[in-house]
Amino acid sequence: MDIKSTYSKCVSGLAAVALVLGFSSIANAETSATPPVVGAQETTAQSGPSLGVEVDSRIVITAEVISVNQDTRIMTLKMPTGKIVNIPASADVPNFENIHIGDKANVTMYQSLVIYQGATGEEVRMDRGETLAHRSTDGKPGTELVRTIDVSVQIKEINKETREVTVQMPDGNQATAKADPADKGFDGLSVGDSIHVRLVQGFAIDVVAS
């Protein structure tokens, strides 16, 4: 299945660099940015103080297969909202021929965010990774795409009165943002400290018999 294009349509990308600057308040805003979906099950968990933030969010939607074209390898889904979505499958997706009208497709979207304070003087950098895997369960196809972004920035200036922090970004530019009053971790920050963000986003489709 062309899960990459479907992923981009269903999941809005998070600005990992902005999360560095907003601490827990921005983390909360980002994880609630996706509007609720009719017929979806959503779970969210958060733990840890500022600069030790962990946020996990997962949405599961069950759609119905209303059409399958074996020649073009396109599966058409009807979402719980009534929206119709065409999903093409690449030649390496196994058991596509076993998809039938009336089957269900479990669509899972999830993201995990961790923000933590690093040691002084660590390297400023950004790393990205992506994995795409196909699978087969009970003779039905499934596909999962996982994207990971790791960002490290370094604090260049701190204004205790205005609660503003200026950091050096991986591209060499600097950015300034104000920490939320609820972020108690702000008082423990020092110039030269590094802040790390790891964002993991996943999107999966698994077809099951009706």
Can you offer a commentary on this structure?
The protein has one domain (3-208). The protein has helices at 3-10, 16-31; strands spanning 40-47, 52-69, 74-78, 84-88, 104-117, 125-137, 140-159, 164-168, 174-178, 194-208. Helices cover 11% and strands 51% of the residues. It contains two helices and ten strands, in the order H-H-E-E-E-E-E-E-E-E-E-E. It is mainly beta.
Observed structural traits:
210 residues; mainly beta; ten-stranded antiparallel beta sheet; 2 helices; elongated
Structure summarized in a few sentences:
The protein is mainly beta and 210 residues long.
Write the layout of secondary structure elements.
Layout: H1 3-10, H2 16-31, E1 40-47, E2 52-69, E3 74-78, E4 84-88, E5 104-117, E6 125-137, E7 140-159, E8 164-168, E9 174-178, E10 194-208
Radius of gyration: 21 Å
Q: Structural class given helices, strands, pairing?
A: mainly beta
Give me the number of helical elements: 2
Mean pLDDT score: 78
Note the beta-strand portion: over 45%
What is the end-to-end distance? 20 Å
Provide the low-confidence segments as ranges. 7-40, 46-50
Task: Give the ordered list of helices and strands.
Answer: HHEEEEEEEEEE
What spatial form do the alpha-carbon principal axes imply?
elongated
The profile of the biggest β sheet is:
10 strands, antiparallel
As for the number of domains, it is 1
Q: Helix coverage percent of residues?
A: 10-25%
Query: How many strand elements?
Result: 10
